């Protein structure tokens, strides 16, 4: 197809799509009504399970099986990333050049790194009480670690980031979620049923299985993002493609 | 273990297996890790086999997390299925087991330091496909749809040394992700209207609304995901590009199970969510998707015949067959559904076997080009026999399972339109003939030596990297034994009368919306009488006719006068440009056409 034809075809079809979707939106419930069929049920169920954060209750208790799938997607994406970003036969490891870092940046990073990590742990641990949870906290943990790259250089990041450990932690987190589901089956309840003691509403230990699954997800997401970013960073910083090798040797 | 718990285990077992392989795979010698993955694949087959037997002629229902219905409403997810969905999951599990065995001596060089990654990805793929087949919840289906997508993109691009797999994986990923967004938009519309996510629950709530613009748009958008996964024209462009470059074991899964899951998803979602009162009327779905199926079957068959890259040829044959499957389920009859179920199972065996044999060629000669391999396969007579048998099975030679399934679907199609069986016969004959032509050329060196034609740009399939490193060794036993067993399976489906009857019974349930809803809501419902699923004289005759036609076509190509049909098919070939922008345009055009077509028929 020629470029003109392709673009015209696309816009003609997109116009039909837009009209249909706009017409569909007129059939949606009005904004600001009081009827929230699923929301009302989910809040009641979250209260019954003594989980203050209803979103966490939906994600890790009421519809935990969806989250198991989502978390497996991340696990698969990390493995897929490892496969696609591995060093090809014609790629060579180059040395990492030390970057120059402003003293202010270095200070900023050194101070914020532990604070960010602490925040990440807090967000993971309080998922059943307040906005946050394993996914959000895990991402904060992983980004916190990468402050080392910003504040120092790649060598320092590599030193505080033993990839083999994170690989294992990623898998352990993913496995823990699947395994926690089996607890329900072991005690004669349903798969992923919240069979742990529910605790007191509003306490850190409330919600039964919710904080435990949150911890597993936090571990998986944090390590998974580190491993995935490592794959990309290696490609960008350390690995030279054949063309680059040619350029460096001046051919 | 109760029947209900076998359903979530069908997802949990492969997930756990993947984790174990990632954890221990790199520390173990190859043999042990091969044994481990085989163990997990076999455990999944056992779980689903048990589920199949326990479910019998009813539904298996599992409320996850124990969130059962209270006052007719639930906040949780329900897995619910009959033997059609469970059978598809079982078929997937059996294929995975076959693929795992096939890969024992495959991939001598897994990613350094991550030896368990490839089998772990295969198991994750299995979890996604089985979850999609077993679930009774629209959003949950979307999640598993995404899981199988994410894994499939990575597996397609597995051989990173070559740019082609990466391009194929990219087209696959982009088109399927766009389709997933469409599905998600549609799910959002349905959720906003009903506040429900279960198939049955949405369907029940929708009966209280009119058939309006929201319903039509939601219907089309939700179905786009499965239709793209199912490679229905004009959403099929990604498939040949991905199949031609993916590692052979992955192709076996993509063609044998994943694509068919798209058709299953579209049919299941229509039946349970949209086919109720005030939904999308039967005649609209039937007329729209029978036409879409016929177009897909014809495009796939014509393109299949044109290919010289064996993997691309098999990929287009999958497109063609998927068109026939879509016609079969879109007839909305128990007989058409039963026939399609059998056809899918028989096709999976034959197609996976063909890919397997092609893998031995790639392994040995570093090429999948029909022309440059001319006569070189003479030293592999057994592989040649398997390849030709696979071609005949594709063409629908009785008593292969493909023939029985095709016969049932044709019989049902005939009562819809008298010319439809001709499409079945011609499409299966053309795809079978292409395989026979290539098989005889490669493995017997018969016919004229193919001329090189440099006027038309072609995907030849030569100059591929062999997927393993040592071409001088003998062909490893599993690489021929697995295709042989798969063909035997396809044969058994046609010969053992029990399987056909069980699937016919299940098809009766599949096409009975009230029965499915009753199973979810927990009230009994009298099931309809199952259709007959036995060989008939007419079915055998049509099967023999398409096999004979395939032989005639192949012989004409090999020994007949060379004919130049390029002027007719060149425009069609040009459409398969490999340009991502084209594919995206076609995706949007397809959506627009469906929106207009459905709206116009109301």
Q: How would you characterize the overall build of this protein?
A:
Chain A has 251 residues and is mostly helical. Chain A has one domain. Chain A has ten helices and two strands. The radius of gyration of chain A is 24 Å and the shape is globular. The model of chain A has no long low-confidence stretch (mean pLDDT 89). Chain B has one domain (3-601). In chain B, helix 13 (334-365) runs antiparallel to helix 17. The N and C termini of chain B lie far apart (48 Å). Chains A and B meet through helix 1, helix 2, helix 3, helix 4 and helix 8 of A and helix 1, helix 4, helix 5, helix 6 and helix 8 of B.
Strand arrangement in the largest pleated sheet of chain B: 1-2
Biggest interface, chains and residue tallies: A-B, 72 and 85 residues
Give, in order, the helices and strands of chain A: HHHHEHHHHHEH
Classify the oligomer.
heterodimer
Provide key terms for this protein.
heterodimer, A: 251 residues, mainly alpha, 10 helices, 69% helix, 2% strand, globular, B: 602 residues, two-stranded antiparallel sheet
Furnish the topology, listing elements before pairings.
The complex is a heterodimer of chains A (251) and B (602).
Chain A: H1 3-25, H2 37-48, H3 54-62, H4 64-84, E1 92-93, H5 103-125, H6 134-151, H7 154-159, H8 163-186, H9 209-238, E2 239-240, H10 242-248
Antiparallel strand pairs in A: 1-2
Helix pairs in contact in A: 2-3, 3-4, 3-9, 4-8, 4-9, 5-6, 6-9, 8-9
Chain B: H1 3-24, H2 30-55, E1 60-63, E2 78-81, H3 83-102, H4 117-134, H5 138-156, H6 163-194, H7 199-206, H8 213-229, H9 238-243, H10 248-274, H11 282-306, H12 310-330, H13 334-365, H14 381-395, H15 401-416, H16 420-444, H17 477-495, H18 497-510, H19 513-521, H20 537-559, H21 566-575, H22 580-601
Antiparallel strand pairs in B: 1-2
């Amino acid at each position: 197809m020629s470029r003109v034809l392709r673009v015209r075809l696309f816009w003609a079809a997109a116009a039909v799509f837009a009209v249909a979707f706009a017409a569909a939106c007129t059939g949606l419930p009005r904004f600001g009504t009081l009827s929230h069929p699923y929301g009302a049920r989910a809040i009641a169920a979250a209260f019954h399970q003594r989980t203050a954060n209803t979103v966490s209750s939906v994600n890790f208790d009421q519809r935990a099986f969806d989250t198991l799938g989502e978390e497996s997607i991340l696990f698969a994406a990390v493995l897929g990333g490892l496969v696609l970003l591995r060093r090809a036969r014609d790629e060579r490891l180059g040395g990492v050049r030390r970057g120059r870092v402003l003293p202010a940046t270095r200070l900023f990073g050194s101070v914020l790194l532990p604070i960010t990590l602490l925040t990440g742990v807090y967000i993971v641990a309080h998922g059943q009480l307040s906005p946050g949870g394993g996914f959000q906290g895990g991402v904060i943990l992983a980004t916190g670690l990468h402050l080392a790259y910003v504040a120092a250089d790649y060598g320092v990041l590599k030193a505080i980031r033993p990839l083999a450990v994170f690989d294992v932690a990623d898998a352990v987190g993913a496995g823990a979620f699947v395994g926690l589901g089996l607890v329900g089956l072991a005690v004669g309840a349903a798969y992923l049923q919240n069979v742990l003691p529910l605790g007191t509403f509003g306490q850190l230990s409330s919600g039964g299985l919710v904080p435990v699954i949150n911890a597993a997800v936090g571990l998986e997401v944090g390590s998974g993002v580190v491993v995935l970013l490592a794959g990309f960073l290696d490609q960008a910083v350390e690995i030279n493609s054949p063309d680059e090798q040619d350029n460096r040797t001046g051919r | 273990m109760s029947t209900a718990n076998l359903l979530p285990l069908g997802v949990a077992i492969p997930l756990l297996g993947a984790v174990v392989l990632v954890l221990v795979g790199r520390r173990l010698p190859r043999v042990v890790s091969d044994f481990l993955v085989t163990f997990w694949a076999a455990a999944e087959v056992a779980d689903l086999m048990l589920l199949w037997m326990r479910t019998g002629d009813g539904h298996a229902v599992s409320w996850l997390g124990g969130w059962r219905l209270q006052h007719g409403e639930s906040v949780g997810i329900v897995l619910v299925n009959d033997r059609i969905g469970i059978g598809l999951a079982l078929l997937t599990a059996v294929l995975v087991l076959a693929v795992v065995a096939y890969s024992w001596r495959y991939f001598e060089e897994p990613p350094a330091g991550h030896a368990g990654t490839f089998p772990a990805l295969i198991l994750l793929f299995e979890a996604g496909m089985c979850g999609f087949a077993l679930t009774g919840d629209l959003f949950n289906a979307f999640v598993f749809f995404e899981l199988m997508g994410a894994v499939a993109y990575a597996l397609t691009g597995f051989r990173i040394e070559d740019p082609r797999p990466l391009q194929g994986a990219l087209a696959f990923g982009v088109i399927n992700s766009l389709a997933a967004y469409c599905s998600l938009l549609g799910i959002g519309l349905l959720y906003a209207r009903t506040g429900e996510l279960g198939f049955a629950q949405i369907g029940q709530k929708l009966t209280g609304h009119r058939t309006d613009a929201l319903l039509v748009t939601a219907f089309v958008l939700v179905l786009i995901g499965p239709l793209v996964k199912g490679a229905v024209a004009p959403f099929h462009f990604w498939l040949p590009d991905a199949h031609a470059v993916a590692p052979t074991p992955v192709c076996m899964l993509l063609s044998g199970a994943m694509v068919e899951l798209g058709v299953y998803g579209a049919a299941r979602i229509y039946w349970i969510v949209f086919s109720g009162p005030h939904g999308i009327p039967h005649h609209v779905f039937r007329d729209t998707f029978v036409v879409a199926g016929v177009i897909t079957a014809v495009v796939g068959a014509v393109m299949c015949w044109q290919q010289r890259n064996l993997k691309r040829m098999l990929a287009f044959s999958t497109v063609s067959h998927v068109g026939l499957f879509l016609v079969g389920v879109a007839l909305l009859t128990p007989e058409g559904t039963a026939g399609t179920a059998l056809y899918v199972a028989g096709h999976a065996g034959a197609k996976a076997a063909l890919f397997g044999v092609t893998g031995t060629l790639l392994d040995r000669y570093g090429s999948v080009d029909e022309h440059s391999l001319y006569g070189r396969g003479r030293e592999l007579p057994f592989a040649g026999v398997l390849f030709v048998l696979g071609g005949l099975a594709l063409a629908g030679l009785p008593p292969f399972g493909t023939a029985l399934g095709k016969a049932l679907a044709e019989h049902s199609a005939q009562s819809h339109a008298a010319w439809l069986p001709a499409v079945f016969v011609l499409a299966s004959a053309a795809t079978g003939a292409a395989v026979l032509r290539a098989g005889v050329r490669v493995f017997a060196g018969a016919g004229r030596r193919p001329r090189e034609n440099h006027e038309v740009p072609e995907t030849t399939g030569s100059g591929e990297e062999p997927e393993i490193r040592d071409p001088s060794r003998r062909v490893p036993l599993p690489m021929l034994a697995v295709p042989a067993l798969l063909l035997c399976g396809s044969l058994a489906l046609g010969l053992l009368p029990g399987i056909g009857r069980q699937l016919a019974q299940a098809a009766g349930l599949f096409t009975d919306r009230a029965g499915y809803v009753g199973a979810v809501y927990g009230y009994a419902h009298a099931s309809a009488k199952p259709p007959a699923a036995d060989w008939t004289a007419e079915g055998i005759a049509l099967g023999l006719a398409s096999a004979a036609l395939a032989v005639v076509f192949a012989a004409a190509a090999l020994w007949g006068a060379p004919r130049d049909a390029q002027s007719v098919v060149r425009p069609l070939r040009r459409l398969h440009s490999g340009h991502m922008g084209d594919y995206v345009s076609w995706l949007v055009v397809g959506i627009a056409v469906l929106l207009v077509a459905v709206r116009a028929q109301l």
